[in-house]
Write a structure and sequence with these properties.
Layout (H helix, E strand, L loop, with lengths): L4 H14 L1 E9 L10 E2 L21 E7 L13 E6 L20 E6 L26 E10 L8 H13 L8 H5 L1 H12 L6 E2 L21 E7 L1 E3 L2 E4 L6 E6 L1 H5 L6 E6 L2
Antiparallel strand pairs: 1-6, 1-7, 2-3, 2-6, 3-4, 4-5, 8-11, 9-10, 11-12
Helix pairs in contact: 1-2
Length: about 270
């Protein structure tokens, strides 16, 4: 599609003004992850002296992801330890989603191991990576990189942001609700893709990518202002590696102050099934 110089300037300004750093998580199929490495799915690190996470019905939960935190990790994430994300294997549950629930979820959880005890016995429990009800279809090592992310067109304030930027950059007055009509369907789609960036979009922090609306449109969810983890659908050369419904996304949100204080019990968990 041919984009006019004026709209190129506008698109560039929308990216530059909304840019936020994130940790991009990239599957590396050439490396087998260790027990305490960053990865999607598979067998988690777990100290056998601790009670293992269970869901609302007392079943052991499966590992969705774990991220090794280092001095290179972006703030306000911890700079050490291991951050893990668990979910139920219950086939009656849609990936552990509890409708209209927030806060202390019972079918997903986040665990921070402040220290990794390499000398401790690691709990032996079944690997759930190939369970039919789980989005992750195997165990995949992750490479972690500092990257930029950009605002989603589904963000609850995107219309106002577009309106202000269009006025500043190209001198056009656009009502917040009219940005899509102003661009036209094809250009609006091009902007969505430009801001979303190439898929898959696994990340921590930064902007979430949203296809079915911003959960923070609801006032009661506004406190969950920080993207803790986003796991995207991901199709590799040999088939699906991650799949949420029909090319959807799963995301964990947390309050920024809770993250700074290392409180991981109060989260918002959102699944878009494409």
């Amino acid at each position: 599609m041919k984009i006019s110089p004026e709209n190129k300037r506008l698109f560039s300004a929308l990216k530059n003004r909304s840019a936020r750093m994130c940790l991009g998580l990239h599957i590396n199929e050439n490396r087998k992850p260790g027990i305490a490495d960053s990865k999607l799915g598979g067998r988690p690190y777990w100290n056998a002296t601790l009670p293992y996470p269970t869901d609302a019905n007392g079943r052991p939960m499966a590992l969705l992801a774990q991220i090794r935190l280092t001095a290179d990790t972006l703030k306000p994430l911890p700079d050490h330890g291991l951050l893990q994300f668990y979910m139920t294997t219950d086939a009656a549950s849609l990936y552990g989603v509890e409708r209209d629930a927030d806060g202390r979820q019972s079918n997903v959880c986040v665990v921070w191991h402040e220290e990794i005890d390499n000398g401790a016995a690691v709990a032996d429990h079944p690997v759930q990576a190939n369970h039919d009800n789980l989005p992750v279809r195997g165990e995949y090592a992750l490479d972690v990189r500092h990257e930029k992310s950009f605002i989603s067109t589904e963000h609850h304030n995107f219309g106002s942001f577009f309106s202000e930027t269009a006025k500043d950059i190209v001198g056009k007055s656009v009502e917040p609700d009219d940005w899509c009509e102003y661009l036209g369907g094809d250009l609006a789609d091009a902007l969505r893709e430009t801001l979303a960036g190439p898929s898959p979009r696994h990340r921590m922090l930064g902007h979430p990518t949203m296809a079915q609306g911003d959960p923070l449109r609801k006032e009661r969810f506004r406190r969950y202002d920080t993207l803790l983890l986003q796991v995207d659908s991901d199709t590799g050369k040999d088939g699906d590696r991650v799949m949420w419904g029909d090319m959807g996304t799963g995301a964990f949100y947390i309050n920024g102050e809770d993250l700074k204080q290392r409180r991981f019990t109060d989260i918002l968990y959102v699944v878009e099934c494409g």
